[in-house]
Amino acid sequence: MAFTPDGRTLATGSGDGTVRLWDVASHREITQLNGHQHKVSSVAFTRDGRTLATGSYDRTVRLWDVTRRQEIAQLRGHEHWVFSVAFTRDGHTLASGSGTTVRLWEVTRRREIARLTGHQGGVSSVTFTQDGRTLATGDIGGTVRLWDVASHREVARFNGHQRGVSSMAFTQDGRTLATGGNDRTARLWDVTRRQEIARLNGHQHAISSVAFARDGRTLATGGYDGTVRLWDVASQREITRLTGHQGTTFWVTFLPDGTMLAGGDDGTVWSWDVSHLVEPLSFLCAQAGRSFTPEEWERYVPEGPAYRKICP
Asked: Does the keyword Nucleotide-binding apply (predicted)?
């Protein structure tokens, strides 16, 4: 499943080959998209929310016009199930993972522009940096590879997960990569130094989704244990645990207004206002209407950062 960037529309793929679009506010189905001949395993929106890409066990990638609610292209060539799809921020390039191969597609011309090989296990997750220059790919063996999109060359390889990589996300500056694994851990990687920064433990089952807040200071993880956990990236500590789903939490995302959405296999979408957790100093400023004195800081923020003015 995937949300549009504004969080208003949810796309879900199902085992019968259908794709459904939902209005998040009213919880109503908007439309059903038919075309795939087998299970839909991955969905992704362009940043403007106008185009949807879907990957399927029928070995095709399909593009859909969200406004007109119709299929606009079929991208063929994969020899195995398509497990993951992702757009660049500008929507010009699409990556799709199938078997041990990742293909890059030029969206406008509907043509393949590159084929990336090297994974020993099936590719299970793909994601781009915000600038579209780097692609991260993860496989069912736990390996993560970074690729230079322009040259189509592998530039780094991360090993650490003991089982498959299920989800990945970059910070907006592209310097940090988060990965969620079936080994119940989330890991943070320094993209520049090509090394692991931290291992986040806590989930009782496999992690299915990871997402950064806009400032990159907070990471959300959703898992098969039905929980969503927020982590402070700097200290690598769990901030809070959010519950609600009765089954797997398949997808988590942050919205610009500070709301976090999570979709689960129980058919529900939960939302939480986590702005006071993601941006606590801004929250304190809004509540107090002024900066704290050093004494108040010591009293109300005893385990927080060093004293500072919280209001501009």
From this structure: no
112/109 Cα distance (integer angstroms):
9
Tell me what percent of the residues of the chain surpass a pLDDT of 90.
Answer: 63
One of 2.30.110.10, 3.40.50.920, 2.20.25.90, 2.130.10.10 is the CATH number of 2-279, namely 2.130.10.10
> Amino acid letter at 149?
V
Q: Within a 13 Å sphere around the CA of 294, how many CA atoms are in the beta-carbon half? A: 1
Q: What is the pLDDT of residues 89-133, one digit of tens each?
A: 999 999 999 999 999 999 999 999 999 999 999 999 999 999 999
Which residues lie closer than 8 Å to 182 by C-beta, 6 or more apart? 161, 163, 164, 165, 166, 206, 207
Q: Which helix (H) or strand (E) holds 21?
A: strand 19-23
pLDDT tens figures, 242-269: 776 566 666 788 876 767 677 666 566 6
Of 233, 19, 251, 10, residue with least CA distance to 125: 251
